[in-house]
Amino acid sequence: MGEPSAKKPKLEGDQLPEHLNAFQEEQKRSLILIDEVQNELDQINEQASEEILKVEQKYNKLRHPHYERRAEHIKNLPNFWSTTLLNHHQISSIINPVEEEVLKHLEILEIEEFEDIKSGYVIRLTFGDNEYFENDKIEKEINLAGEKPCTATTPIKWKEGKCFIKNDDENNPNETMSFFEWLIRNVDPTLDDIAEVIKDDIWPNPLQYFLCPALDATNDTYEEF
Amino acid sequence: MGEPSAKKPKLEGDQLPEHLNAFQEEQKRSLILIDEVQNELDQINEQASEEILKVEQKYNKLRHPHYERRAEHIKNLPNFWSTTLLNHHQISSIINPVEEEVLKHLEILEIEEFEDIKSGYVIRLTFGDNEYFENDKIEKEINLAGEKPCTATTPIKWKEGKCFIKNDDENNPNETMSFFEWLIRNVDPTLDDIAEVIKDDIWPNPLQYFLCPALDATNDTYEEF
Ligand SMILES: [Ca+2]
Ligand SMILES: [Ca+2]
Ligand SMILES: [Mg+2]
Ligand SMILES: [Mg+2]
After folding, report:
1. A207 CB near a chain B CB, below 8 Å?
2. What percent of chain A has pLDDT above 90?
3. Does A213 contact B at CB distance below 8 Å?
4. What predicted TM-score, i.e. pTM, was given to this entire model?
5. B4 pLDDT band (50/70/90 cuts)?
6. What was the pLDDT predicted at A212?
7. Where is the chain membrane-spanning (chains A, B) (predicted)?
8. CATH superfamily name and code, A78-211
9. How many CB atoms are closer than 10 A to CB B107?
């Protein structure tokens, strides 16, 4: 019989909660037997989660060299990532005009999942030389493990007078949060739609956005262009 | 190289969309190579989905005998399922007073997933003899496959003058839909929170709801009872 998971009610023979004292002995026995079944199911569920995670890890490894090859080809296409981000309606909606210029220096966008997948990932942005900041890489790390999921971003080393971020108070988020404001803020990653879109929508297939700002999802060819 | 999935943009050597004619030959070649990588990734993703589905099918089989044993023990506990449903705040919020009486005749609640898991499941309710309807089983089948997911419920054979459902117009859903109104309606299963709660929350561990109407999720013992 498996161990009960930490937050589940426990029922051990002589520890029946008082409000169940009205049950007859045979019914109490049934309750305890149901509890045993639930403990066994807990164990099976845990094994299932672990096995699915291993499958996901295996396929992440298989995807990796393809992402690497893709990155090499993408380097031949000027403005691939800025075009891709601007063609995605959710991302473009937070990119302001200055940021549109800045993102022309974005050379590589990468997602790196943590080894165990479930505890988080990094969004890594690699920039060419530019007039705004010294960093060549800016990483936003999304930590999903632990009691309080959080994010951490590489501090941006602004060039003299070149900081274009107006609202960097993460306790005062407003409706018009911009792309770089999103980038530097430690927001609850479980509520961070932008990070999720980049990881689950753009990263798996950026080409579709690069090619096609107005692609109607129901068309499967480019015939009307 | 894999086949492109049906709804993705296609890029085959001589079929570049017109708006990409401005690209130089080398860049066009890069685009086509990126597209090839995406096709390979599509294939990997499909394999991953299939393998995860197989893991889920394997564990569903492993869970099955435990659910069977649980069902045997549950039979010894009068009103197990009505108590369990009434102790779940989302389900109890749609059970009206008449239905509370009717559900005292609910002897078995079962979920049966389709063999392939992904295409749907059945919620099967088995009732004892009662004054309301002739059916001993009422099944709500949730079909997730196909273009238009749908549900289908066993027609209820009401006893003379005993139909207690007031609003059976599924085109006119109102805020106060009751449990049996939910049961008989063909609503879009992708928007059906009630079916999902029964399948993913109650069915995996009904005991926690049966035992504990006011269980605070942060307590792991019954000490305060
Ligand atoms: Ca236990
Ligand atoms: Ca293709
Ligand atoms: Mg890449
Ligand atoms: Mg059962």
Report:
1. yes
2. 70
3. no
4. 0.76
5. very low
6. 81
7. none
8. Nucleosome assembly protein (3.30.1120.90)
9. 18
